[in-house]
Amino acid sequence: MKELNLDLHLHGRYAGGVSKNMTIPVMAEQTKLKGLDVLVTADILHKTWFEHVKKNLEEESNGVYRDLKGDCNFIIGGEIEDNKRIHHLFYLPSLESAQELREKFLGKGNLDCIMCGRPKLRITAEEFAQSVDDVGGIFGPAHSFTPYTGIFAFFDSLKDAYGSMHSKLEFIELGLSADTNSADRIKENHSYTFLSSSDAHSPWPHRIGREFNRIKMEKPDFKSLKKAISEKEEKLITLNVGLNPKEGKYHCTACNFCFSKYSMEQAEQLNWKCLKCTGQIKRGARDRIEILANVENSHPSFRPKYVYSLPLAEIIQQAVQTKGINTKAVQSKWKDFVERFSNEIFVLVDATESELNEVDENIAKKIIAFRNNLVLYIPGGGGDYGKPIICETKEEMERKKIELKNELAGISDIANQKTLGQF
Question: If both were cysteines, with which of 40, 236, 341, 345 could 216 make a disulfide (CB 3.0 to 4.6 Å apart)?
């Protein structure tokens, strides 16, 4: 049994807003540099993408799929949108079961449009789950706390969402705006395995694998994934790795046009209209979890550690103080680290401080500071990503906490300039 790194939520090139470079060969190549061992095929219900996947994967043994160059293994799966706009993930034993599932959904939505990496189906969550179960697959909600398409935006309980199929539900995906500590504040969630995946729309290492799972597996296949998810007390999932939820673009309650951030009380008094631009204020994952929370500082015995991560290019960017991650200065240093340690995840999670110093002491200092949680976050909201600030000392961190007090709290200046009585 080996520990493998898996990213289980992606989109192929035929989905809306996705890079044309999201093809199996490019994904597999970049995955090797990132340090991932297994990807989901993504968008497997789309006819053209299905043919692309079938052409570019080979079945090495029963249920074990690999790209033609042998860089990465793949598990068959994808995402759908139901009749309430809720997004769900599914994983399947084989390409044959994917074809069978597609046939069940024909006539219930458009599976093959240019934006249909995530087909919009005219079915309930319960009906979707039943169809996946019928072909031997497993299912769960995607980015569960996202205010537009997450399941907790529509339901207070997953039992209500999945109806008779709730008994078959084994996992929920956290999404970028939540982590283990926040999701486990809802007691019901203690029954489920948590997955942390990137939902990447491009194959480059600052996107793919920005969230991933480390799992002990006999083989890199569906059967081993299902066992790790369902046999919880075996503790086969050893790490959830992802962004701090403050970096998620729907973490705070905020205007979805100008991104001004508000407390729940302020948003309610404003009737959910932004003071700055009159745009719609959308409730963020942080406040939705606060509403549903019914337990504190409690986790089930099988829950693995959640490790915060940042794309290496973003850490290097802060160390060399350039404006973008695609600058020559950043990419040159990124290449130095990846060539030294073979992949990015090893640099971020596993390499020792002395090993990092051998490549670049200045950047090593930032990586170690990040590992030691010397990071402040200006939280995201309304569709705008949060911004991490890596501090090198506790003294610097305390100073910036004072300097950036309002921004770090996730309340914009325009909201702070008014008292609640003046709204």
Answer: 236
pLDDT in tens, 142-170: 999 999 999 999 999 999 999 999 999 99
Residue 3 pairs in a beta bridge with 216
- DSSP letter string over 107-151? TSB-SSSTTTTS-BBSS-HHHHHHHHHHTT-EEEESSTT-TTT-G
Task: For residues 397 and 409, give the distance between their C-alpha atoms in angstroms, rounded to a whole number.
Answer: 15
How many other β-carbons are positioned within 10 Å of the β-carbon of residue 83?
15
- Tell me which residue of 220, 189, 172 sits closest to 57, measured CA to CA: 220
- Burial bucket for residue 170 (CB in 10 Å: 0-12, 13-18, 19+): middle
Q: How far apart are CA 135 and CA 158, in angstroms?
A: 22
Q: What is the pTM for the complete model shown?
A: 0.94
Structure tokens at 36: 């991932």
Closest C-alpha among 392, 63, 16, 61 to residue 199: 16
Best CA proximity match to 262, nearest among 422, 421, 416, 423: 416
Triad 176, 177, 179: Cα angle to 5°: 85
DSSP per position, 221-237: SHHHHHHHHH-GGG--E
CB 24 within 8 A of CB 65: no
Beta-ladder partners of 381: 252, 384
Is pLDDT of 421 > 70? no
